[in-house]
């Protein structure tokens, strides 16, 4: 079946993320239709430049691209079930958060009905939608991505990860892991320095500079080590790091703070040393995580 595009977009789901998708598309001059299931969100204030469909079927028939962004995959599948007879005549990009298995199930359901499906993940808060540097990743139908790439780039940076429909969802949780680990580290650092009356806003410029220079270089080096499974300890090694972690735990405890995070890092390091990686770099802890 031919799947032409005319630039019209329907956003299904008016939660904070869905509304942000609609606003960004409408602000760029795209003809946008919005719809949500009956409930508080369906009665949300109008979005400038977007029209509201009076039914799910009207939303599907009003656009060549459906942006689906609801609270979970159960909701997404329920909506697709209701629009089953229309899924073969439009392209669906699902930006609902979920797992790889859920994305693969929806992709298989769509494929069985002649639909074209692209899974996606928004790696940002709603207020970042529409900014060129905002990270969005997509996987699934290459035809859908190619056909609507210009529309997807109105939402932020559009990175295609390949034809496996579950790839975007896996990137989503993996990158959230990176974000949460980084941000909890920041909160621990800010709290520790806060015990000396050092404001977080004072240390943040130093931290962000360190992240963009030294830490970025280390991550790039560790990426090569992880792929090669070779962890040279010529500049830093676990037995060198371990005493510094003890200092961190002692400082944290002495100042009356929770020690769970530094103790977790020390525990992984101790396991690495016990496994024979004492003279290897910090990147060797990936072998402990892989177990």
Automatic annotation (TrEMBL):
Residues 8-158 form the 6-phosphogluconate dehydrogenase NADP-binding domain. Residues 165-291 form the NADPH-dependent reductive aminase-like C-terminal domain. GO terms for molecular function: NADP binding; oxidoreductase activity. InterPro entries: 6PGD_dom2, 6PGDH_NADP-bd, HIBADH-related, NAD(P)-bd_dom_sf, RedAm-like_C. Keywords: Oxidoreductase. Transmembrane segments: none annotated. Pfam families: NAD_binding_2, RedAm-like_C. The keyword Oxidoreductase applies. Belongs to the HIBADH-related family. This is NAD(P)-dependent oxidoreductase. It comes from Actinomadura rudentiformis.
């Amino acid at each position: 079946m031919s799947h032409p595009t005319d630039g019209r977009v329907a956003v299904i789901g008016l939660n904070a993320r869905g509304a942000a998708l609609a606003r960004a598309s409408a602000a760029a001059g795209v003809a946008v239709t919005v719809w949500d299931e009956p409930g508080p969100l369906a009665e949300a204030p109008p979005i400038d430049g977007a029209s509201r469909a009076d039914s799910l079927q009207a939303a599907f028939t009003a656009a060549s691209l459906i942006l689906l962004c609801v609270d979970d995959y159960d909701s997404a599948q329920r909506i697709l079930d209701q629009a089953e007879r229309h899924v073969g005549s439009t392209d669906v990009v699902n930006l609902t958060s979920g797992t790889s298995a859920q994305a693969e199930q929806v992709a298989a359901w769509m494929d069985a009905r002649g639909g074209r499906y692209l899974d996606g993940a928004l790696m940002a808060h709603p207020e970042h939608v529409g900014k060129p540097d905002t990270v969005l990743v997509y996987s699934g139908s290459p035809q859908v991505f190619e056909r609507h790439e210009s529309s997807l780039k109105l939402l932020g940076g559009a990175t295609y990860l390949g034809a496996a429909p579950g790839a975007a969802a896996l990137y989503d949780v993996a990158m959230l892991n990176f974000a949460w680990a980084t941000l909890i580290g920041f909160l621990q650092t800010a709290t520790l320095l806060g015990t000396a009356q050092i404001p977080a806003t004072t240390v943040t410029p130093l931290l962000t500079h360190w992240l963009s220079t030294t830490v970025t270089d280390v991550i790039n080096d560790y990426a090569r080590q992880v792929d090669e499974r070779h962890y040279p300890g010529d500049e830093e090694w676990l037995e060198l790091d371990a005493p510094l972690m003890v200092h961190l735990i002692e400082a944290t405890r002495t100042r009356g703070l929770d020690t769970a995070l530094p103790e977790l890092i020390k525990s992984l390091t101790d396991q690495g040393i016990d496994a024979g990686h004492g003279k290897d770099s910090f990147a060797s802890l990936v072998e402990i995580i892989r177990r």
